[in-house]
Amino acid sequence: MLLESALPVFGGRLDFARAVERNLADAAAVASGGRPQLLFFEPAAPLLTLGRRAQAGGSDVAESVAVCRARGVEVAAADRGGLATLHLPGQLVVFLAVPLPTLGIRFLVRHLLDSAAAVARRRGCDPQVRDDHDAGLWLADAKLASVGLRVQRGVVLHGMALNVALAPEVVAGAAFPGLTLCGHANARLADLGARAPAAVADVAAELARQLRTAG
């Protein structure tokens, strides 16, 4: 199995910057021969992260940044692939520090999304995994999970964000109107809790088992 030997750790609510620091430290340890790591956490505060493509700018990115800052949401550059991603309390983030698979980064992306899809299906959702420019996990036209990875010294960092228990106004689209997320204007976010209440810690444990036993 792809991540069978990885050690899963649930950090609870974490400041995103501290989680990134831990991810970098875990990756350095893995590069030196240490055990692969999976850090699961819930963002302690809202944060808009800009992947490398989003950092190139554009009117949509500028508008999204303005929307977030007007609502007191911090904006930060992220050293990962992808565009803009909104991180919020009620979201489950998993940061990987694992050797690059022999089958490549796309294989790992698919494994992450397939694992999240399996968790969602067990909770009554019918998600769609997309591999193209809309890469992610979707419920109709609303995004349930996003992936953004980086490879450094043969180790994969960063990971996936899965919406578990977002505030109702976020899911309804009223909290952040006008955002362009992952290249989608007026983006809508889906949530596992739409079908049944879900605790972030419970979903973290379930996703950890799925990631380590499938693929």
What are the salient characteristics of this protein?
about 220 residues, three-stranded mixed beta sheet, globular, BirA Bifunctional Protein, domain 2, seven-stranded mixed beta sheet, about 30% helix, 5 helices, 12 strands, alpha+beta
What characteristic shape results from the CA principal axes?
globular
Largest sheet: 7 strands, mixed
Strand sequence of the main sheet, in spatial order?
A: 1-2-6-10-9-8-7
Rounded Rg:
16 Å
How would you characterize this protein structure?
By secondary structure, the chain is of the alpha+beta class. It has a single domain (7-213), classed as Bira Bifunctional Protein, Domain 2 (BirA Bifunctional Protein, domain 2). It contains five helices and twelve strands. The chain has helices spanning 16-31, 59-70, 105-122, 168-171, 200-213, and strands at residues 7-14, 37-43, 47-50, 74-77, 84-87, 91-99, 128-130, 136-139, 142-152, 155-163, 180-181, 184-185. The strands form three sheets. A seven-stranded mixed beta sheet has the order 1-2-6-10-9-8-7, sandwiched between helices. A three-stranded mixed beta sheet has the order 4-3-5, covered by helices on one side. Strands 11-12 form a two-stranded antiparallel ribbon. Strand 9 and strand 10 (155-163) form a beta hairpin. Helix 3 (105-122) crosses helix 5. The longest helix is centred in the middle third of the chain and has 18 residues, at 105-122. It starts with 6 loop residues before the first strand and ends with a helix.
